[in-house]
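Quick start: what a row looks like.
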Amino acid sequence: MFFSYIFFFAFGILTAQIDSALADGDDVSFTIGVIEDRHRQFKIADLIHRDFETLSNHSPNYGLSESVFWFKVEAVNRGRDSVFLLKVQNANINNLVFYSITNGQIGVQKLPNTTPVYQREFNTQYPIFRVKLLPDSSTAFFFQASGDGVMEIPITIGKSATILEWVANDQLYFGIYSGIIAVMFLYNFFLYLSTNDRQYLYYVLYILVVGLTQACLKGYAAKFLWPDSTWLIVKANHVITVLAGVFSILFTFNFLHVKHFFKAVYAALCATIAIYVISAVLYLFGHYIIGQQILQVNTALSSALVLLSGFYIFYKKKYKPALFFCIAWSFFLGGVIIYIMKDAGVLPFNSFTNNSILIGSALEAALLSFALADKINIYKKEKEESQAEALLISKENEKLIREQNIILEQRVEERTHALQESNESLQNTLTHLKETQAQLVEAEKMASLGQLTAGVAHEINNPINFVTSNVAPLKRDVDMVWNAMDEIENIALSDLSLSEKKQRINAYKEELDLEYLKVEVDFLLKGMHEGAYRTAEIVKSLRIFSRVDEDSLKFADINEGLESTLVILNSVVKEGVAVDKKYGELPLVECYPGKLNQVFLNIITNALYAINKKFDGNSGGILEIKTEADTENIYISIRDNGIGMPTEVKEKIFEPFFTTKEVGEGTGLGMSIAYNTIKKHQGEIKIESSVGEGVKFLIVLPRKQQTQ
C-alpha cells in the first residue's frame, strides 16, 4: 500500500501542475458564497440582497443532504473577453438552476440531470452554463443545487476553449480507463472459456460492474448507455454500486478461499452482502439518503474486511495469490482515500484527485488480472508435478502388472476350467427347467382340456340321452302304423260290403287309438329334433371355442367367444348361481380368438370357484359378464360376488405357479397365461377386489392390433 500512495502522490503533483497551467490564462477570479436552505423555502428574490457565507475553496462538499444549497458567485474579469463558461464538475446533481441578473431582470437556466446530453447546449454530462462577464468589472450570479446524492459542487469558470478542453481531457481519461477495463474483461473472459475456472467468471463480472459504477459516477452511463431513461439515470448509480460491492465480495470469496482460510471474516462479509441488498431496497423505495448512508458505511466496512482477509491469508496461510490481491486492493483503496480527501477539502480538486478512483480501479483490474494469470503458472506447476508423480506411479504399476500377469494367467486357467464346468452344469439345469416348464404348460393345457371334455360330455350327454330315449317308443309307434296299414289293406281287399269294411276299419282305429298315436309320434319327433338341435349348438360352441386358426390374427366376435365359453362351462354353473349377461354392440376385433377364449375360460372358472367357495351351492351367487366399446378399445368386465382376494394375493395373481387352490385343483399357470395373452394383444387386464365382496376383472383390448 505504501508504494501505491507514492505512485498516487507523484502522479497527483504532475496532474495538478497541468490543471493549474490550463486555468492560469483565463484572467478570471471568483469567490463563492453559500446559504443552506434546510426547509426548501427560499426563492431567488429572497436571497439577492442577503449575505452569503463565503467559502474558502471552489469545491464545496456537503455530503449526503436533503437541503437546498444556494450559491452566490462573484467573478472578476481582468481580461478582454466577456463570454465565459461556468462548469459544475458533478454529473449526478438532481437539479441545478442558474440565475443571472441583467438590468434588474432575472434570467433562469434549468438543467436537471435527467435532461439527455444530446439535448444540452454542450455535449457533456456535466452542467455547463454560459455566463457574461464584462471586462475589468465584477459580476454576481446565483445558482441553486439540490439532490439525493453527495452534494459536491466543484465550480470552475473559464474561457470556452479552456472548459471544453478540460471536458475533452476528462472524456479521454475515461476512454483510457474504459479501454483498460474492456481489455481486462475480454482477456479474462476468454481465459474463463478456455479454463472453465469460476474465478475468471467472478472476476469478469466484478470488473464489469466496477466499470459500470465508474461510468455512472462520472455520468458517462447516462450519456451513452441510457440517455432517455429517467428511471435509470436516477436509480442506476446506487444499484450498480451495490452490485460492485457484492461482486467484489464474491470474487474475494472465490479467489482467496475465505471460507476455508478465514471463516470469521467470511461470515462478516456475508452479512455485508445482506446490508448491500438492504441499502438497495431502501433506495429503490424512495429512502435515498438513508440508503446511501448505509451504502457508504457498508462499503468502508466491507473494503476493510476484504483487505484484512487478504493480508491474513497471505501472512498466516502463505497463500501466494493473496499478495497480488493485497497490492491490487491497496491501489484501489488508495484511489478511494484520495477521492475522499478531495471531497473533504484536504486535497485540491484537480484531474488527478477527481479521477483517482478511475486510476486505482484500473490498476486494481490489471493487477488482479496478473494474479489470475499467475494462477495459470501455479496450475502448470501442479500439473507437471502431478504428471511426474503419475509417471512414477505408472512405472511402479507396470512392474506390479508384470509380476501379477503370471499369477493372473494361472488363475485365469483355473477359473476358465471352473467356468466350463459351471456352464455345463447350468446348461443341464436350463435344459431341465425348459423341460419342466413345457411339462407344466402341457399340464395346464391338459387340465383345461379335461375340464373342457367333462363339460362338453355332460352337455352333449343330456340331449343325446333325450334322443335315444325317444327312439324305442317311436319305433313301437311306427310298427303299429305299419301293422295298421297291413290290417286296413286286408279289410279293403276282402269281399265284405263297403259299409262293413268301413265299420271294421273304424273299429280297428278305435282299438289302436290312432289319434293318440299321431300326437305321440309328433311329440317324440319334436323331442328328437330339439335334442339334435341342442347337440348341434353345443358342437358349434365347441368349434367356436377351440379355434383351429388360433395362431393367426383374424377379426372375431368377442360376444360370440364369451357365449361359447359359457356353453362349455354350463355344467360347472351350479344351481343358485345367476349368470347376468350384458353384451354390448361390439365391432369385430382383430385378435387370436382361441387364445382369448382360453383367457375367458380361466377367469370365469376362477370366478365360479370363488362363488362356490362362498355360497357352497346355496342361492345368491352372481356372475356378471359385461361388454362395451369406444372408438379405440373394447372392454370386457367379468365380475363375481365370491370370496374376493386380499391385497397380497392380488399382487401375485399373475405370477407363474401361484395359486390359492388346494393341491391338485390347479397348476398356478392359468392367470399367468391369461396375463401374457392379453399383453400379446397389446391390451391390459385390471383387477378390483374386496375381501368377502368379490372380484372384478376388466380386460381392455384394442380394436385393431398395432404393427410392432
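That is the whole record. The mean pLDDT is 79. The chain has 18 helices and 18 strands.
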